[in-house]
Amino acid sequence: MTTSPLRPGEQLASTVCGTRVVTVRVPAAAAPTLTCGGAPMVAANGAPKVPDSDPAVTLIGKRYVNADESVEVLCTAPGSGALSCDGEPMTIKAAKALPASD
Fold first, then answer.
1. How far apart are CA 47 and CA 90, in angstroms?
2. What stretches in the chain show pLDDT beneath 50?
3. Rounded to an integer, what distance in angstroms lies between the CA atom of residue 38 and that of residue 50?
4. Model pTM?
5. How far is it, in rounded angstroms, from Cα 89 to Cα 51?
6. What does the alpha-carbon distance between residue 48 and residue 51 come to, in Å, rounded to a whole number?
7. H helices, E strands: number in the chain
8. Exposure on the CB side of residue 57, measured as CA atoms within 13 A
9. How far apart are CA 62 and CA 77, in angstroms?
């Protein structure tokens, strides 16, 4: 299980699939629980790589956020498990619209 509290830059790995993430944003006053495929994520340092033959659900290079966008992670390895924060599914962060250049 991940140690609380999470810090930006922390590398986490799934214990059920090949998903690996780096935390980008985490509220200082909270200790969110990140899971992948229903199982808590662990520190990637020394975590065994889990083979993953299923199609990827988490996509490499995509940023995932919780509902209020207070927690953000960057996927560094794809996997078949879905990411969740405190029991709520995380979604791919939408790209910011650039201002029009007239």
1. 22
2. 1-3
3. 15
4. 0.86
5. 23
6. 9
7. 0, 10
8. 17
9. 10
CA distance to 1, 17, 32, 49, 52, per residue, from 56 (Å) = 23, 10, 24, 15, 8
**Residue 55 CA from chain centroid, whole number:** 17
Token pair listed for 65: 């956020």
Beta bridge partners of 15: none
- 7's tokens: 């810090």
**Single-letter amino acid code for the residue at 101:** S
Helix (H) or strand (E) holding 76: strand 72-77
pLDDT value for 1: 43
Which of 68, 64, 23 has the alpha carbon at shortest distance from 43? 23
pLDDT in tens, 47-74: 888 877 777 899 999 999 999 999 999 9
Which CA distances in Å does 84 have to 41, 50, 100? 10, 19, 35
Q: Cα–Cα distance between 102 and 28 in angstroms, integer?
A: 40
